[in-house]
Amino acid sequence: MIDDDNAYLTEFRTRLGLPGIIDVHTHFMPHQVLRKVWAYFDSAGPLVGREWPITYRADEQVRLETLRDFGVRAFTSLVYPHKPGMGAWLNEWTAEFAARTPDCLHTATFYPEPEAPGYVADAVAAGARVFKVHIQVGDFPPGDPLLDPVWGLLEDAGVPVLIHCGSGPATGRFTGPGPMDEVLRRFPRLRVIIAHMGTPEYSQFLDLAEKYEGVVLDTTMVWTDFSEADAPFPKHECPRVRDLGDKILFGSDFPNIPYTYGHAIEALERLDLGDDWLRAVTYDNAAGYFGLR
After folding, report:
1. Is 282 domain-assigned?
2. What's the CATH number where 63 sits?
3. Whether the predicted model's global pTM rises above the 0.90 cut
4. Which stretches are annotated as coiled coil (predicted)?
5. Closest by alpha carbon to 224, among 273, 255, 169, 264?
6. DSSP assignment, residue 233?
7. How do residues 83-103 score in pLDDT, each as one tens digit?
8. Rounded distance, CA 245 to CA 174, Å?
């Protein structure tokens, strides 16, 4: 294990000649919401299913300074509603957070409800760069008819959706590649970031990345010791991971990770897919994807 994350990450960036790290999967939320999320992890609730200590439980400013000290140049403020009536309010908070946090990619969210097309359009007009959807927590099918105008709007706007739709760490009623494939068949130009490489349905979500130009995947928690214990990545798929290297973005799940930040990078290095692959995944791909060059 890494003794000093800051030293390791500094050496990693220097060795690869990186200007920084871009992390597409980080969580910043209203305090009262994040407190409830942490309480759920502490209770090892059904969607968690195992002991899950929060390594970076701290005040917002401390968490921001921690990411920046790690060399993270850009990150997200992923939020997600679990019931109707939350989406517009969360989007107001993330817009304000992005306005006072220049290195945060303006993030928004939505839920299947009649109001969703209106507040999603408002968020796009306000400059949202990425939307977050969590199928397990929200407990809704991505193909819900109430979302048809939302998917169409985002497809036309070219704004990506980072979606937790794999069945890890616990299977939901609407998780798995099938429901997402149905949406993509109807909205084939949709830009989608599959969270956690689609854990544990890795192979099927790699299929979607090969099938649809707009589908990419994030590495969040994959290949770490924690995830390998419960949902090991199939080694025979590593050649496909290498070949799809331009469609894979680094994500961490900071601050809600049960290990140190450096381990997420170390896990990628252990794949031994080469420095060019590491540069692409930890910086270049996301820089191009979000126009950060």
Report:
1. yes
2. 3.20.20.140
3. yes
4. none
5. 264
6. P
7. 999 999 999 999 999 999 999
8. 28
